[in-house]
Amino acid sequence: MRLVFYANCLGRGGAHQSMLAWFDVLRSDPAVELVILCAERGWFSDQLDQRSLPYELLPMPRALGGIKHGQWKHRWRTAVQVLSMGAGLLQAWSRVAWLKADAVVLTGGRDFIMLLPLALRRRGNTVTIPQTTDWAEIPVCRTMCRVASRTYAISASVAQSIEAMGIATTKISVQPLIYTVDQCGRLLDGLEARRQCGLPLDGPIIGMTGVIRPHKGQREAILILREVLKQVPAARLVVVGTAGESDEARRYEREIVELAAGPGLSDRVVFLGWRDDVPQLMRAMNLMLVPSHDFEGVPRVILEGLEAGLPIVATDLPQFREVLGQFGAGALFPIDQLGKWTDEIVALLQAPARLEAASRHARAVWRAHYSAEGAGPRIRQAFRDVALL
């Protein structure tokens, strides 16, 4: 069974991490041959090299690579760009159109365009895997779901958004993400992790990871900590992530740093910036906050927290409810009711036995539903189904 993937390699976020996890699962099936095409060398190709997974470079036209989600109308400005992209696509299409493929996997709008001739030729054996509902705003992604014979949604929430695009429900199924810990060396216990990561050895640590933007809720996390400290004065909040380059994100970052320096919070909030040792950091934490304001497909941070055995307190949103609520692996509250967040966190931190039980349950949920061992057989069967259509 020959599966063809294309990876644009323009980022190193959850979508790319998920693809790597799928590769690890699929390669364990002796009947599967992976054909991986990469736009360029970089972090993603380095990960493939470390896994001894062969790949071929198929450069994406520069004009196509410059198109960002939701910004198509701002990019089609000159005839030169259009002609350049057209010439590059014709060259790429001549290389992929007649590839042997039992199944074609489309993981992004630009990736879809690069594999368009092969996807059309093998239309009956093509699957698309949208990651978030942002795709509903991009015509090419709606087209991609219509071209593909199957659409694999990473959550029921994403599946509903795809249905709202007018895609037949018979073509859509929910397939779980897989999260695996790799490239971290030996995973440490809590005290060792604190020492290695330079974190205080005393007191409970509340963790939060993710890009620093208003909708991620770092401000709310700091406000929650301020109330928690009134009852658990030894607690700290560790914030992992960077703000990106936009003026809005930079302004927001300055605001939350100023808030964290305010009365009652001095030296209680630790900003670590971008880190590549998040799995180790999570083992230094006692629980995790995910105070997002709006939709995310299935946040990778939730799966990371479950794998690390962290009790999770998150916003009561459908996609979080689907993972945490369904399996009883966390507490969910509206983002405008921070008092309830505070009460839950204090109750956990003041009851070590309850905290430990919640930790064991979180780990068990990850192992059963989101690990390679738990979800792998289902993923392998899903790709076999496409290849056999």
Describe it.
This protein is an alpha/beta fold and 389 residues long. It has two domains: 2-180 and 374-387, 3-Layer(aba) Sandwich (Rossmann fold), CATH 3.40.50.2000; 190-369, Rossmann fold. Helix content is 46%, strand content 14%. The chain contains 18 helices and 13 strands. It has helices at residues 14-27, 43-50, 62-65, 72-75, 79-96, 109-114, 116-121, 139-147, 156-164, 190-197, 218-228, 247-260, 278-282, 300-307, 318-327, 338-349, 352-369, 372-387; strands spanning 2-7, 33-38, 56-57, 103-106, 126-128, 150-153, 172-174, 205-209, 236-240, 269-273, 287-290, 312-315, 330-333. The strands form two sheets. It has a seven-stranded parallel β-sheet with strand order 3-2-1-4-5-6-7, with helices on both faces. It has a six-stranded parallel β-sheet with strand order 10-9-8-11-12-13, with helices on both faces. The longest helix is centred in the N-terminal third of the chain and has 18 residues, at 79-96.
